[in-house]
Amino acid sequence: QVQLQESGPGLVKPSQTLSLTCTVSGGSISSGGYFWTWIRQHPGKGLEWIGYIYHSGTSYYNPSLKSRATISVDTSKNQFSLKLNSVTAADTAVYYCARGATHAQSNAEYFQQWGQGTLVTVAS
Amino acid sequence: DIQMTQSPSSLSASVGDRVTITCRASQSIGVYLNWYVQTPGNAPKLLIYAASRLQSGVPSRFSGSGSGPEFTLTISSLQPEDSATYYCQQSFGTPYTFGQGTKLGIK
Fold first, then answer.
1. Are A36 and A112 in contact (CB under 8 A)?
2. DSSP for A72-92, written as a single string
3. Buried residues in B56-72 as b, exposed as e (16+ CB within 10 A)
4. Which of A79, A124, B27, B82 sits between 20 and 30 A of A25, alpha carbons compared?
5. Is the per-residue pLDDT at A13 higher than 90?
6. Rounded CA gap, B84 and A15, in Å?
7. Is the minimum CB–CB distance between A1 and chain B shorter than 8 Å?
8. Region at B16 (left for phi over 0; alpha for psi -120 to 50; beta for the rest)
9. Is A112 an interface residue toward B (CB < 8 Å)?
10. Which residues of chain A have a CB within 8 Å of the CB of B34?
């Protein structure tokens, strides 16, 4: 059973860059058929998709983040990462990494396995 | 962006009840609809994908149906451990979006 674990600073100052890493265990990030995703949840609120990346490096992002987000993958460490620059208090949230999969018959994509999440607070 | 609207926003039901949650997309999304459940302090967990496919390990009392713009998640016989918040999510097009959540309580 694949497991995902987020890590990174819990406190980031305004205007700085938020950096998180997701370590994947129990499976190779290089194995085909999956994509690697970041999702966040503002305190007491709903879920917001940030973006995802394939092991090839192809990535897609939510335009609402106005190009502040970058997702990268390090297959040698079996990790993928999120960088979000120019953060403000509005970026305070629990950040989840997740493994995405595709249903072969319908081509529907879904978030199959999630990390436990990590709270990042933006404050001076 | 595709807007996802869930109803109701909250509900309370008794153990053994049949419970239905509805999710409506702002446009037709085929079967590109997933359901997740989240309990306080925990990550969301996948229940249903591609509108009606039960994720491995999920109890069979959960089922999903629908296509196009309207979908339902049904719990056939509510159990105490089903008290949680349920989210729908569309994967028809990026940015992927979620419903606002339905908080289900036990009477």
1. no
2. EEETTTTEEEEEE-S--GGG-
3. eebeeebbbebeebebb
4. B82
5. yes
6. 35
7. no
8. left
9. yes
10. 108, 110-111
Neighbour tally for A28: CB within 10 Å: 12
Listed residue (B86, B71, B73) closest to B31, CA to CA? B71
B residues 35-94 closer than 8 Å to A (CB): 36, 42-46, 49-51, 53, 55, 87, 89, 91, 94
Residue B22 has pLDDT above 90, yes or no: yes
- For residue A26, the one-letter residue type is G
**Beta pairing partners, A98:** A37, A114
For tokens 């990790």, name the residue.
Answer: A79
Report d(CA A102, CA A80) in Å as an integer. 19
